[in-house]
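Hi again,

Forgot to attach this to my earlier email, sorry! This is the prediction with oxa(dethia)-CoA bound. I've pasted everything inline since the attachment limit keeps bouncing my files.
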Amino acid sequence: MRNAAITGWGMAVPERVLSNADLARMVETSDDWITNRTGIKERRIVGPDDSTTSLSVAAARQALAKAGLTADDIDLIVVATCTPDQFLVSQACLVQAEIGGNAGAFDLGAACSGFVYALAVGSQFVQTGLHERVMVIGVDTLTRFVDYTDRSTCILFGDGAGAVVLEATDEPRGLLSTVLGADGAGYKHLYIPGWGAFVPESAELFPEYRPYLHMNGQEVFRFAVRVMGDAAAEAVEKANLTFDDVDMLIPHQANMRIIDAAARRLALPREKVWVNLDRYGNTSAASIPIAIFEAAETGKLAEEDNVVLVAFGGGLAWAAGMVRWGTAGVCRDPECRKLGLAANEPERVPSGQSPDAAVMEIPTAGNG
Ligand code: UT7
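Structure tokens for the complex follow:
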């Protein structure tokens, strides 16, 4: 059985930090309230020189370097985002304009669940044999659409990008199971009206017609607690594994209380759950690939580890998957790469152990 191993990973966040104390000077809120209700302490937000493209490109370059590849080696780029820099052309083509190559390139929209959806799509292209190497990017700059007078939403979001490279292997690596779902009827609990092809004649006729993110926090919270646990458990079962086999849970970083509920459902102790929302807030489609990057770079992921990814968000959509970490069976020989073959005796690359993990620098869009 052909699989799609994760062989490269990258991330980028803007340099500008927005702390809870900064927000308390902008709206009626407090560090205590935000910390207790969400777990978030600070987030990175785009400045005038940042863009969805600049963050994606920095993450993509880093992922290519990690995989030991160039853009010419990539057959397909899939970008998951709900905040592309423009609608024509795709965000994926804007990334390719910077990194080079002639891979197929398209975007995928599933809001905060987008990266897991895109990982499923990218993995399928490798598993079917249509492509050898696929780049999957999760990126969002939702703070461009946040109303900074609305305390119920502006405290939550940050910006960022994460990228992974997928390569063919005959070993059981990469995405071993996938769970995708959506409840479109609930779309108005989390959406950004406007900025699409539908433009009402008069904005007065549509009082809600503002290019800002609208959210019914309590509804989304209830939905998230339900689907995160269920989808994660289903992903484990579909991979024919048990909760005991799970080495790490990487959940979408939206709210600590939602993450705790998902971890309880899988009976996982906190140390097996990757949490970074205190530093980045909710970065939408970027939250899971950023967490993958951090876990890999700090040596927390070892060959054959079973990692559950689970996300929820606008749609209302959800997605989960069981990833078997590592690069066993991935061909590192240029000749065999050219032929598109998985090697019989692969030269294994280290799976993310970094000797200076403890002093890892946070990559920003400028240093990718
Ligand atoms: O990727 C998906 C993105 N979306 C989410 O993940 C959202 C999921 N929902 C949540 O995380 C939570 O619902 C929130 C963090 C958004 C809100 O927490 P909550 O515990 O559901 O609070 P609430 O909406 O029930 O509001 C409780 C009180 C209200 O005041 P009253 O009516 O009790 O007087 C709010 O007006 O807290 C007030 N409040 C705030 N107070 C201080 C709402 N936002 C704030 C704030 N600071 N930032």
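Residues 217-238 form the longest helix (22 residues). Confidence is low (pLDDT under 50) at residues 342-359.

That should be everything now.

G.
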